[in-house]
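My main concern about presentation is that the manuscript never shows what a single data entry looks like. In essence, backbone conformation is discretised, so a fold becomes a row of integers matching the chain in length. An entry of this sort, consisting of the sequence and the corresponding backbone structure tokens, reads as follows:
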Amino acid sequence: MKNKNKRQRHRQRKMGLSVGIPLSFGLLFFPFFYYLKVGLKIDVPIWVPFIVSFFFFGSAL
């Protein structure tokens, strides 16, 4: 029973990381592109943040 719980926790941790890391990147890219556009005055096309975030959100699924 102890090994079963240990394997289950390991599986949950792996699943959390495989979903959480790409999801975090997807969320963090919006403020990053905002900083590029407003803070550094770099003209980033509006579709770039959406494509990048779509990629990371999609990989989180």
